[in-house]
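Project outcomes to date are best conveyed with an example. Our students and postdoctoral researchers have been running inverse folding experiments weekly, and each run begins with a structure described purely in tokens. The record below, which covers 149 residues, was selected by the lab manager from last quarter's runs and is presented without edits.
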């Protein structure tokens, strides 16, 4: 494993494994639900979802379509401490992953129609989590340990 501090302040971690022909990029922001103001609970998760809804270069859903067309996968999650975005591609396509990531990092668009649609998706996710015993337990434990933050 090699850690490199980039000139823009980002830290790159490179883990090389020549046994596979895949490359995975994972961009981890050191911000999560604990950083949310109590009046804006859920904003970190909401922004995670919006990162897939369009940027200056890629329209709504285009990152997902392009990823699939190139034979890759992408995903994201928000935790208490961080928000992580990842792509996996054939190793010769790593530039594609970083190009898409850089664009949405620098030029995310927040179109009202996409915001409204994603609000409904997240409310449904919350409802499903409340109905799942394991998710409900996790939320209860998190609330007891961390309170509002």
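After processing, the design step wrote out the following sequence:
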């Amino acid at each position: 494993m090699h850690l490199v501090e980039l000139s823009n302040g980002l830290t790159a971690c490179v883990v090389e494994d020549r046994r596979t022909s895949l490359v995975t990029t994972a961009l981890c922001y050191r911000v999560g639900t604990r950083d949310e103001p109590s009046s804006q609970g859920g904003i970190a998760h909401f922004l995670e979802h919006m990162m897939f809804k369009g940027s200056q270069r890629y329209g709504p859903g285009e990152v997902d379509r392009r990823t699939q067309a190139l034979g890759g996968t992408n995903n994201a999650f928000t935790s208490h401490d961080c928000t992580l975005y990842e792509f996996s591609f054939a190793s010769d396509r790593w530039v594609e992953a970083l190009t898409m990531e850089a664009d949405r990092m620098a030029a995310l668009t927040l179109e009202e129609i996409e915001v409204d649609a994603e609000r409904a998706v997240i409310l449904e996710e919350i409802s499903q989590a409340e109905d799942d015993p394991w998710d409900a337990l996790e939320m209860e434990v998190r609330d007891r340990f961390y309170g509002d933050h």
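The mean pLDDT is 88. The two ends are 32 Å apart (CA to CA). The training component of this project remains on track.
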